[in-house]
Every structure is written in structure tokens, then in C-alpha cells.
Amino acid sequence: MNRPLRVLTRAMFVMFLALFVSVTMIQFVDADDLRANDLNTRTIMNGYKVERGSILVDGNPIAFSTPTKDSYRYVRQYSDGELYAPITGYYSTRQGRTGLENAMNQELSGTANSQFFTRIMNTINGVDPQGSSVETTISAKAQTVARDAMAEGGFEGAVVALDPKTGEILALYSTPSFDPNLLSSNDDAEIIKNYRQLTDDPSKPLNNRAIAGDLYHPGSVYKLVVAAAAIESGAATPSTEFANPDVITLPQSTHPMQNASRTTCGSGETATLQQALIYSCNIPIAELAMSMDRDEVPKMANAFGFGQDIEIPLAVTPSVSPVPKDKAQVALSSIGQLDVRATPLQMAMVSAGIANEGTVMKPQLVKSVISPDLKVEQEFSAEEFSKPISAKTAKSVAGMMEAGVTDPNGLAQKAGIDGVRVAGKTGTAENSNTDDANGVPFTLWFTGFAPVDNPKVAVAVVIESGGGAAYNNLGGSYDLPTTVGKRVMEAVLSE
Q1: What string of DSSP letters covers 208-250?
Q2: How far apart are the C-alpha atoms of 176 and 155, rounded to whole Å?
Q3: Which residues contact residue 253 at a Cβ distance below 8 angstroms, ignoring those fewer than 6 apart?
Q4: Which of 485, 434, 440 is nearest to 462 (CA)?
Q5: Which residues contact 404 (CB under 8 A, 6 or more apart)?
């Protein structure tokens, strides 16, 4: 073969190879992304033809498609829209989608890889295309109780409940909420008008406070992370004693630190780690944190999930716990202030990990995907997320949390449930930025789990603005979120 022919043959081979790779990338590797691209009008037009699958809670549809007489053929509708909006999000043909409507769009629209053979069989049999349904892990009872408890107090904030052993999300509620029906009609002009009204609302109803939004200073519930880091590293035990002044000056600073009570932590000359958690004292916790390496607590926070990308499958805004620059920052960070911020989901994961003998399970909002002929196409199983602490450490921290509920002076005693061993921790975070919570100083927290001896539920509750208008936006009572958390735990345990 002469040289020009060899060159031509090789060039054609390279071109054929490039074409083969390109076609493979488009048809297989990038196919899902191309289908999901908002600029892909063919996908939008194909979506008109498909009866979108339902989103289910306890087997009942909370999001479903109904036929219309317009060119779209179907419209998305939501039952109990505001109750489940933080879970479902909304779906519109041209104006976007959020929540599970977005995260599980391929399954709901029938275009997922797992539905490939179903699509082929439907085509052969002449069956109209139809999406699969998504069964959530949510307990209707726990979700409803979370909503009712927050509404009765007129609170803004969020509630999350998890099964510590599986990671299944039993409740995920954010308030104020919104009605997804307002954003899911087939009238683009109406959707845009409603969307602008919601985005202009100063209460930010579109923010999913349970997993995203601006995040919150965790305040004293973060002391659980400090205690776990100290016990796991050997720096302390529940009985370790600390000096017990009523005020300290932070190192290399003129900034004073006091306990929330503005007194000593108990009446003794010293206070134990257990007392510090029961009474939620700042000074012993700060002294403990300053005695360790300054990255010890952030490392433990990271092991529990802080700073990590989490999908449930909704995208969760990472909680943050940066390494403090000096001992003064170590002290402030140890009580959940300074730059430490968390989602309620993250704090529920902390309690769930302690409840589950030190193992944090991956939080999961979807239980299964069900085909139109009621066959399970996908089933999601429990998956370990991390193991930040040993079972021994978890037992020690759980014991201190339980004492916070059973001690006559414990700040979490309102979480007590008759005949059930309950563990709990309260928190009251001060917002140093006057723009936070409309200038209101307190964010109120509760996190805990029950039963201690056989955990079925772990919760985290956050209430903004000191409880809101009913408390003149100045309430600092840890009882408010504790009572909400108790009611949600009772709802789960009663099922």
C-alpha cells in the first residue's frame, strides 16, 4: 500500500473513531443530562404526552397529574400542598421544578434508565407512556403533627425526624410554607406572577429551612459534638470536672463569656461535663474545647456530616464548622456561635448517630420507585453514612442527654414522655448579626431521640425569632422547641 493511501486510511479510521466516541457520549453517557436540560424543547414537548407518576406518602398520592383539555394534556396537582411542599417542591412544564419533582424527575416522567425496558414494552403494546410513582419515607402522622405543633405556636422554623437505624426521614417540615399548586398550572403568566409574590414575601416561604436557606447558629445543641469529640479522644469523661466561675475572659481578648443563667454551673466549686450538658452551661464546655486541639471539634463535626455534600435525594446545603483561628474562637465555636451554622437535618443526624451506637445512617427521603403496573422498580436500602464515634462514646453522650430530660433541673425535661426513656438537648443561639432573624436575638433549638434503649426516632426542631410575635420576638425559652419535638416523637412512637 503506497504512502498516500495509508495516510488516507488512517485519517478515515481516526475520523470514524471520533464519530463513534461522539455518538456514544451523546446517546449513552450524556443522554440523561441532555434529556434534563431546560433548553431541550423536545423533552418538554414529550412531557406533555406523559402522565407523570405520583409522589406518595403512606401509599397515598400527595402530588399527581390530572387530564386537561388543553395542549399540555395534564396538569400537576397537590393535596395538602403547604404541608408537603418542602418535600414535593413544585413542577411546571416551562417554569422549572424543585423538590422531589426535580430530584426524581426522570423516574416520575418515565425516562430513567431503570425504565428502559418498560418504555420498549409500552411502545410495542401501544400503551400510552406513563411515569412511575415515588414512595417517600415520610410518616403522614409525624409530618402533620410537626405542622400542627409549629402552627399552634405561630412559629417559623423547621422540624426534621429520622429513624436512627435506617436513616429514613419521617418528617421534614418547613414553615412558612407555600402552596405548590400556585406554581404548577399550565399558565406561564400566572406562575410567574405567583412566583414573584412568593419571592417578594419577607418570610421567604420558598426557603426549605429544614435542609437549606440561610442556616442557623446551632447554639447549645452543638455541645453534643464537643462532648462526643472530647470523650472519643480521651480528653474527658462525663464525670470530668472543670473550674466553675460565673464569668471568664476569653484568651487574648477582652470578651467575657458567661453561662446563660449568668451564674455558675451548679452550686459547686467545680462542674462536671455531665452537669454542663444537663444545665447547658457555656463556661465548662468552652474550657473543655480550649483544652483540645483547635481542630478536634470541627473534625468531629465533619464526621457527623458538617461540610459534606448530602443528597436525600434533595440537595442539602452543607452545615459549616470551620477550624477556629485561636482559643477565643475555639470557645465561641464550642457553644455553637461564631461561624458555626447548621441545618435542622444535620442536627437530627447528630442525635441519630448518638442514638444508633455511634453510626450515622445516610438520610433518605425516598423508599421506592413503583411502576404504573405496581411493580417495584427500585427499592432504597439503609446505607451507612459515617461512624464518627464508638458505641461506648455514644452510650456516654446518650446518658448525659437522658439526664437532661430526667434531672429535675434539666433544661430538656419538657421532652419527657411517660413510660419512655427520652434523651434530649436544648439550645438557644444568639444572632450577633442584626440582620439575622430580622434583628431578633434568639434562635431556639431542641434535638433528641427516643426510646433510649431502642431508638425509633431522632428529631431536631428550630424556631426562629425567639418564638415570633406571640413572644414579642424576644422569647428565649428552650421549652418551645422541646414541646414540639416531644409531640413529634410521640407521634412516631404511637404508630
Answers
A1: -TTTSTT-B--GGGGHHHHHHHHHHHTS--TT-EEE--SEEEP
A2: 8
A3: 328
A4: 485
A5: 277, 278, 280, 410, 411, 412, 413, 423, 424, 425, 426
CA dist., res. 333 & res. 276, Å (int): 16
Catalytic residue among 109, 220, 371, 465: 220
Q: Buried b / exposed e across 48-61, counting CB within 10 Å, b at 16+?
A: eebbbbbbbbeeee
pLDDT digits (tens, 9 = 90+) for 109-141: 988 766 655 656 665 655 567 899 999 999 999
Supply the Cα-derived Rg of the chain in whole angstroms: 26
- Cis preceding-peptide flag for 451 (omega within 30 of 0): yes
What single-letter DSSP state applies at residue 314? S
Fold exhibited by the domain 219-367+381-493: Beta-lactamase (3.40.710)
* C-beta neighbour count of 206 within 10 angstroms: 20
137 vs 167, 355, 384, 457, CA distance in Å?
Answer: 10, 19, 17, 13
The two beta strands, 442-450 and 376-379, are: unpaired
Give residue 154's region: left, alpha or beta (phi > 0; psi -120 to 50).
left
Say if CB 335 and CB 220 are below 8 A apart. yes
Q: Grid coordinates 416520575 are at which residue?
A: 108
The Cα–Cα gap between 475 and 334 comes to 23
> Is 71 tagged catalytic?
no
Helix (H) and strand (E) counts in the chain: 17, 19
The DSSP string of 80-106 is: THHHHHHHH--B-SSS-B-HHHHHTHH
Please answer whether residues 201 and 324 qualify as being in contact, where contact means their C-beta atoms are separated by less than 8 angstroms.
no
Spatial CB neighbours of 357, under 8 Å, sequence gap ≥ 6: 391, 394, 395
| CB burial of residue 84 (10 Å; 0-12, 13-18, 19+) | buried
Helix (H/G/I), strand (E/B), else coil: 304: helix
The CB-side HSE value for 358 (13 A sphere, CA atoms) comes to: 15
**436 pLDDT more than 50:** no
Per-residue pLDDT of 279-322, as tens digits, reads: 999 999 999 999 999 999 999 999 999 999 999 999 999 999 99
Report d(CA 198, CA 400) in Å as an integer: 43
Most confident option among 4-13, 121-130, 290-299, 439-448: 290-299
pLDDT-derived band at 424, boundaries 50, 70, 90: very high
Domain positions in the chain are 219-367+381-493
**Close Cβ partners of 167 (under 8 Å, ≥ 6 residues apart):** 352, 360, 361, 362, 363, 364, 382, 383, 385
